[in-house]
Write a structure and sequence with these properties.
Strand content: 5-15%
Shape: globular
Protein name: Cellulose 1,4-beta-cellobiosidase
Number of helices: 21
Largest sheet: 4 strands, antiparallel
Organism: Pseudobacteroides cellulosolvens ATCC 35603 = DSM 2933
EC number: 3.2.1.91
Pfam families: Dockerin_1, Glyco_hydro_48
InterPro entries: 6-hairpin_glycosidase_sf, 6hp_glycosidase-like_sf, Dockerin_1_rpt, Dockerin_dom, Dockerin_dom_sf, EF_Hand_1_Ca_BS, Endo-1-4-beta-glucanase_dom2, Endoglucanase_F_dom3
Helix content: 25-40%
Strand order of the largest sheet: 1-3-4-5
Mean pLDDT: 91
CATH class of the largest domain: Mainly Alpha
Length: about 750
């Protein structure tokens, strides 16, 4: 028996090594043609994907031409329905079409993407009545934030000083109107919630909103409501939905919009490349209208540089402290959001808010560079160019300040602790008097746990480095790329791993203008994943960084190889008739049935789907239309079995991230013969060796214990702990681990 086991193990090892050896030349060929299929280049791959996204039969766009968040409708992440769309989606659309213009010389798709953006995502003048009643000497009335949804509604405080808005008059002078020119962050494209627009209940591409109730309010705990509050739904006798969020004596029917700053910034980033590429082609005049739109958007986007209530950026800012004078409430970062609103009929007031919290993943040096240096994109309003020039430096400083000892970028900073200007914790590190926050804005899950925020933010920094050679950007990128290289594992077509979840410890040194290396700030990769959109962004980042080193420093061939191998792996192994996808198991979808959505005791109302809103209701109770979804039976069956349902999603942003990586390689390395790839090191996976150190010991037991009782797909669950592949980490897995406890790779044990 002993010899027989050894024989089988030897066969398994030989087979695995043979497969690994054969896979290497496929992934790292010496020409683009053999990388994918006969005669195909990266440009061809991009054009093929562009055709798939624009094929009406594939369902990426609505009948109006608005891109959906995903083809599939059963989808809960930031949008809570797949056929919603976000300003993020619009910005990806603009970015994708800019690349198409570069590769084909056809800018009609880019122009259309901006037309769709302006028509549907940017509220029109008629969507913003009575904003002329805005008192720029007092931006808004103060409402304290809370940590939990149960801390709401927050009590309106009319006596708390709030700051002066020194931007409104400059914008009105430049553009001749009171209306804002920014994208509202989320739209219900198919009117699934049935709110319609302006309270009509029927119109499509409906303006809705969700997140309103503190750091712990996840997408599973929101109460979706219409942007126009007409008291037709919600608690009709007490402010509609408004009384869930703000406690006050009386309520006005009003409208309100919110902006996700990084999305508008991405649209401007896309405009930078469109200007450069169209100019190279002699076709700049064909996109001149879009240049004006991007510059105008950048002008208004300065509201995200302001503290929420336009209070001074200072350590001792409190609810009762002096209001800001305008400039002293600007932090010059791309913060989480800004918002504005007014009554539907004039009552002599309106309001605007900035944001006190800034996340590293939202920063976009390319946008600041474009708006401060490119003549076609310089905004018209007074002070805009200098504000964006200052923002460029401030963003780069922030990223330096947050770079951990290992290389990843930590969370962000905040001028309003606990969203109510509480005193900072003792000993907290600061950046221009703003407190370090390892998980700014939301905590379920922690906002900087997701590796995707690393590559979203730093892809822009890599572009900026490539374009300018800025030494600050180079040093940031070099340290980060050196950190990530060992974590990118390409095993064969469609089989790859990249970081998924990160864990943070310590804090950065207080910023004094010089990066210290942050010896007390650390990051650990706690789980690996295979998100194809994040992988596409990683490949794109590596392409621009490698090209930047070739242009400005010493070519980093390893970064180039890894980016190319990762992209090739997905093209070879994740394609289908609609684009690219990879199966994922959603253990968090148990929250459809289990997650209570907080409604205060005694508060009742109805939403437009006909659901009664009341204390104790669950996520699915608020969204009964999900029971008619094509995937409902799949969800219900999986829940009854105690496992996460499996999906192959086609997210719009996933497709674009991959397309932009294809375009990056096509543009940056058009004639190169790629160097020999880094051959994946043959390895043996030892059953139960969850941390990959070659021995099964208490470290593996601890990893399994952290995920015990949870389904695959839930936040923080290590998929490797599911040793019997039944979708749940349970006693069966613990028994398997116990069977092999103490074994090493040299022992005669079963491999998997």
């Amino acid at each position: 028996m002993f010899k027989k086991t050894r024989k089988y193990v030897s066969i398994a090892l030989c087979t695995f090594m043979t497969v690994s050896t054969l896979a290497a030349p496929i992934l790292g060929s010496n020409s683009y043609a053999t990388s994918f299929s006969s005669g195909m280049t990266y440009e061809d791959a991009f054009i093929d994907l562009h055709e798939k996204l624009n094929d009406p039969a594939n369902g990426y766009f609505s009948q109006e031409g608005v891109p959906y968040h995903s083809i599939e409708t059963m989808m809960v992440e930031a949008p809570d329905y797949g056929h919603e769309t976000a300003s993020e989606t619009a910005s990806y659309y603009v970015w994708f079409e800019a690349m198409y213009g570069k590769l084909t010389g056809d800018w009609s798709g880019y122009n259309k993407a901006w037309d769709i953006t302006e028509k549907y995502y940017i509220p029109s003048d008629k969507d913003q009545p009575n904003l002329g009643d805005y008192d720029q000497s007092k931006c808004a009335s103060f409402v304290p934030g809370g940590a939990e949804p149960s801390d709401y509604p927050g009590q309106l405080n009319l006596n708390a000083p709030t700051g002066k808005d020194n931007l409104h008059a400059a914008l009105k002078s430049a553009y001749g109107k009171d209306s804002m020119y920014l994208m509202h962050w989320i739209l219900d494209v198919d009117n699934w919630y049935k709110y319609g627009n302006h309270g009509d209940g029927t119109s499509r591409v409906s303006q809705i909103n969700t997140y309103q109730r503190g750091e712990q309010e996840s997408c599973w705990e929101t109460v979706p409501f219409p942007c126009w509050e007409t008291y037709k739904w919600g608690n009709t006798s007490k402010g509609g939905f408004g009384s869930l969020f703000v406690a006050q004596d009386s309520y006005a029917q009003q409208w309100r919009y919110s902006v996700a700053g990084d999305a508008d910034a991405r649209s401007v980033q896309a405009a930078y490349w469109a200007v450069k590429w169209a100019k190279e082609q002699g076709k700049l005049s064909s996109i001149s209208k879009q240049n004006d739109r991007a510059a105008k958007m950048g002008d208004y986007l300065r509201y995200i540089m302001y503290d929420k209530y336009m209070k001074p950026i200072a350590k001792d800012t409190s609810v009762t402290s002096t209001a800001g004078d305008g400039k002293n409430s600007m932090h010059y970062l791309i913060s989480w959001y800004c918002a504005w609103g007014a009554p539907t009929t004039s009552q002599g007031w309106a309001w605007k808010e900035g944001s006190s919290a800034s996340h590293q993943g939202y920063q976009n040096p390319m946008t600041a560079y474009a708006l401060s240096t490119i003549s076609e994109l310089k905004p018209k309003a007074s002070g805009a160019v200098s504000d964006w020039a200052k923002s460029l430096d401030r963003q780069l400083e922030m990223i330096q300040w947050l770079q951990s000892s290992e290389g990843p970028i930590a969370g962000g900073c905040n001028n309003s602790w606990n969203d109510k200007y509480d005193p900072y914790p003792d000993g907290i590190s600061t950046f221009y008097d703003m407190a370090y926050d390892w998980q700014p804005v939301w905590h379920d899950p922690p906002s900087n746990r997701w590796y995707g925020f690393q590559v979203w933010g730093l892809q822009r920094t890599a572009e900026y480095y490539y374009e300018t050679g800025d030494e600050r950007a180079y040093q940031i990128m070099k340290k980060w790329v050196d950190w990530v290289k060992p974590y990118i594992k390409v095993n064969g077509p469609g089989d790859f791993e990249i970081p998924s979840d990160l864990e943070w410890d310590g804090q950065p040194d207080t910023w004094d203008g010089t990066y210290t290396g942050n010896p007390d700030l650390h990051c650990e990769v706690t789980s690996m994943g295979s998100d194809i959109g994040v992988a596409g962004s990683t490949a794109n980042l590596l392409a621009y960084y490698a090209a930047g080193t070739q242009k400005h420093h010493t070519f980093d061939e390893e970064a180039y190889d890894l980016g190319k191998q990762l992209l090739d792996c997905i093209i070879l192994g994740c394609a289908d008739e609609k684009g690219y996808t990879k199966e994922e198991q959603r253990g968090d979808y148990s929250r459809f049935f289990d997650q209570e959505v907080y409604i205060p005791s005694g508060w009742t109302g109805k939403n437009a789907q006909g659901a009664t809103l009341k204390s104790g209701m669950k996520f699915i109770d608020m969204r009964p239309a999900y029971k008619q979804d094509p995937n409902w039976d799949n969800l219900q069956t999986a829940y009854d079995a105690g496992v996460g349902p499996k999906f192959k999603y086609h997210r719009f942003w996933h497709q674009v991230e991959l397309g932009m990586a294809m375009g990056a390689f096509a543009i940056l390395f058009p004639n190169d013969v790629p160097p020999p790839p880094i051959t994946p090191t043959p390895f043996v996976k030892l059953k139960g060796d969850l941390n990959g150190d070659g021995v099964i010991n208490m470290a593996d037991v601890m990893i399994l214990a952290q995920s015990f009782g949870k389904a695959i797909g839930n936040p923080g669950v290590n998929e490797k702990a599911d040793l019997n592949n039944d979708g749940v980490i349970n006693m069966a897995d613990a028994i398997i681990l116990a069977q092999y406890f103490g074994k090493t790779k040299s022992a005669e044990v079963v491999m998997f």
